[in-house]
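Prompt: For my understanding, could you write out one protein's sequence and backbone structure tokens?
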Amino acid sequence: MKEYIGNLKGQVKQFDVIVAGGGPAGAACATVCARGGLSVLILDRAKFPRDKVCGDNLNPACWPVLDRLGIAGDIPKAPHSRYRAVEIATIHGRKFRFDLPPGNSGQTGIRRRDLDAILLDGARDSGAEVLEKKTVTRIEPGWKIESGRETFSSRWLVAADGRNSTIARLLGLLPPAGKDRIAVQTHVPILPEDEGIVRMMLWPEGYSGGASIGNGLWNQCLVARPEHLSGLKTRASSVLGLPSHLTWNAITPLARVPCFPLQHGGALLLAGDAARVVEPFTGEGIYYALRSGELAGECLVELKIEDYPRLHAALYRKRLWVNQIARQAVLHPVLASRILENLPGSHWILSHLTRRVIPNDEALPRSAESPLRL
């Protein structure tokens, strides 16, 4: 139960768990904690709904998590696109195309402003308190969290506030960030023939990735080294026929050393991109955010917090090689194109990388074993 204790600033709201960040990782964690009987507060500096720089892609592995969170049925009610094929093109124009399995639990495009709003509403419905437009300005281990003139207190703190986590930064935990690449994203009107398609292109300056996301929109992302970004934008505008005077949203870094997911004697858990960043090329970022947030919530409710680092590592272990391949392809598009064009079996390799991927998490708590899954 939440309590109110006095201090010089007035009332301090006390919770069992404070979750910093209302995105997929934070909302998933808060939902699980609230359903497990813990009092939960989500703090987010944004006002929802809001957009995020993202591929807007729901990997098939997301659907079991969304179902357990009780919101899988809400996704089709929002604008979305079911993907039917993936196309990959080298810098010389050679194309590889792969059909995707049909069905309601397949690869799906949905704008983050819609997905995150659904997830946050699910957390509210589960009993979590949500405060928007609340930037964390000060932290005292224990935990005392200040946002402007308000103070909140909790036994456990979950940092689910992204790759440039404010919580990690204020606590001196944010690792060095290399600016080897920058990602930019925009939404543009879709061409009819592009509905249900994911298009990836390797160009000398970097990488282009686009996909339909429903409601007549196309999500266009570009990734390049900082010195090549301007040239990549120019090429994309020319080749793709993008409208002039586009507004591009940017994010950096795209990779950094992962934080250890458990800190301060087990009272601080890091989830989503605050703990580990995966390559956007793979389209698995939202899955890892959802599952790591759900996992953090399960460990808190079951008071098995010491298991979180091991289970968190198991979540990523067998997929890191895919991330390394993707990173090298984006960093070295010319070399990657030559390999794809000349390597025997390259079509099979790409098919393996782009097929329906459900990460192996057999070591993680399953729905049949967890008292949280009703």
Q: What stands out?
A: The two ends are 22 Å apart (CA to CA).
